[in-house]
Write a structure and sequence with these properties.
With about 140 residues, this protein is of the alpha+beta class. It has one domain (about 10-130): Endonuclease, Chain A, CATH 3.30.870. The chain is about 35% helix and about 25% strand. The protein has helices at about 10-15, 15-25, 45-60, 110-125; strands at about 35-40, 60-65, 80-85, 90-95, 100-110, 130. The protein has a 3-stranded mixed β-sheet, with helices on both faces. A hairpin with a 5-residue loop joins β4 and β5 (about 100-110). α2 crosses α3 (about 45-60). It is globular and about 45 Å long.
Length: about 140
């Protein structure tokens, strides 16, 4: 089943509460970055995410894409997550199909883990392609 893409001209159809949070946060000067490590060619679901990423960018997120073919030599965490500060990491648990598994999210207060995630993220971010320039293979 193919999901219909959002229409950039019809903001009311795609704007949602998360984007309000992003817009309010970035308006305060906080930088929000999202890195997507992807296999190419993109799966239907990741293509759907790509097609909808303009909403994140419109809200103020800086989004980059890292094809796995450009990730050689990087040590990337197995679990996706958010580095919130110098000690807090929120980890997301998904199965191989991208569905949530238990526990869905795990908040860890661990300065060593936060530093490891931040270091891995920065290395990957430097290789990643800004959303405006990324053309999926």
């Amino acid at each position: 089943m193919r999901v219909r893409a959002h229409d950039p001209a019809d903001r009311e159809s795609w704007w949602r509460s998360w984007l309000d949070v992003v817009a309010e946060t970035t308006a305060r000067g906080v930088v929000m970055r999202r890195l997507r490590v992807v296999s190419e060619p993109l799966s239907d679901y990741v293509r759907y995410e790509y097609d909808g990423t303009f909403t994140n960018v419109a809200a103020g997120e800086d989004v980059r894409w890292l094809p796995r073919s450009r990730a050689h030599g990087l040590l990337l965490p197995v679990l996706e997550g958010w580095v919130m500060d110098e000690a807090t990491v929120i980890l997301h648990h998904f199965d191989g199909e991208g569905q949530w598994t238990d526990p869905r999210m795990e908040v860890r207060r661990d300065p060593v883990l936060a530093a490891q995630y931040a270091k891995a993220y920065e290395a990957a971010w430097e290789r990643a392609i800004p959303h405006a320039q990324y053309r999926p293979g």
